[in-house]
Amino acid sequence: MRKFIIRCLFFLFIVLAIINVTLIYYGGYVDYYYNKFASPPAKSMIIGDSRSFQGIQPVVMNTYFENKGIELPVLNYCFTIMDVSYGEPYTESILRKLDPNTKGGIFILSVHPFVLSKRDQDDDPDHGIYFETQKPPSNMSYVSMSPNFEYFFKNFDYFHFRGILRKTSKTHMDGWLEEKNLPDDKNVLDSWKKRQLKLYGKYATSWKKSTARFNALVSLSKQLKNHGKVFIVRLPIAKELLKIENDYWTDFDTDIRKICDGKNIEYINFNTDKNQFNTYDGVHLDKFLGADFTKVLCDSIMSRSELINRKIISK
Questions:
Q1: Is the peptide bond before 147 cis (omega within 30 degrees of 0)?
Q2: 181 vs 246, which has greater pLDDT?
């Protein structure tokens, strides 16, 4: 019996060692989220769903804000709309990931109507019931551990080991998801856009605006202000998708601006007539336009930061 136990423990050790090596070298290919939980506590963060997960690149921000008084590096702590919305669970995970000693960070909160919405009967944020409770990042207690076996055991269903061979997409250690092999075929991309239109049309008819989730965004903004500058950003999407969102939540931009007014928080909306960024599927920026967009975002942040500083000095 003793030999059997020793053999089992030895086998377990070998298995864990293989998993550890795989995750260290290939974690970004195996799982889209793993590297977010295997990185150190964050000083500056990008927060939101897949739009900012793909569309805002920390490496560009780190280069731009180097030696500009911002605590770096930036971590992309975004997920997908299937796993996160603004609310108590996401807020708790963000604060758990944040380095509590940070005072000069920068925080990008990506917003749109559907990350501030109530979904179905299993999602009642007004009464403390959240659809995302059993999903990452909300189900994680240890968010800065490498190797992170908690993530492996709790979220094994998210792993796709064939990604090691395909290498078509990778989440970098800074949390940014890089899509490496998008098709050039316009018909394929048009079909993806039609799928997004159908999906968001479904959201618009079955989801409801949530006061609780909106208030959670307000609360998170206030808490992050204690650690640096906060910017709420609406990323560019296709006009057809934007129409669905604006019809669903007519006064969305006005409501977001009310959060910011008088609180030294800036709202930057890239869905204007001057929007120069085209998405590949109606919702997401590819990695090339994502780099350009991040640079433009940084320019906007810098100019808004100077405005905030002048307001503070004048008080």
A1: yes
A2: 246
Partners of residue 110 on adjacent β-strands: 233
50/27 Cα distance (integer angstroms): 19
Biggest CA-to-CA distance, the chain: 77
Q: What is the distance between the alpha carbons of residues 221 and 116, in angstroms, rounded to a whole number? A: 14
**How do strand 74-78 and strand 44-48 relate by DSSP bridges?**
parallel
CA dihedral 20, 24, 25, 30 (to 10 degrees): 80
d(CA 103, CA 130): 30
Q: How far apart are CA 18 and CA 312, in angstroms?
A: 53
Q: b/e string for 3-17 if b means 16 or more Cβ within 10 A?
A: eeeeeeeeeeeeeee
Backbone angles phi, psi at 75, to 5 degrees: -115, 130
At 218-268, the pLDDT tens digits run 999 999 999 999 999 999 999 999 999 999 999 999 999 999 987 889 999
| pTM of the complete model beyond 0.70 | yes
Distance CA 303, CA 284 (A): 25
Q: Which residue reads 């997409």 in tokens?
A: 169
Measured CA to CA, the distance from residue 305 to residue 278 in angstroms comes to: 27
Instruction: Extract the tokens encoding 160.
Output: 């796709």
What residues are paired with 76 via a beta bridge? 46
Give CA–CA dist 69/103, Å, rounded.
11
| Per-position b or e across 144-158, b if 16+ CB within 10 A of its CB | bebbbeebbebbeeb
Burial of 292 (0-12, 13-18, 19+ CB in 10 A): middle
Helix (H) or strand (E) holding 109: strand 105-110
The pLDDT of residue 13: 47
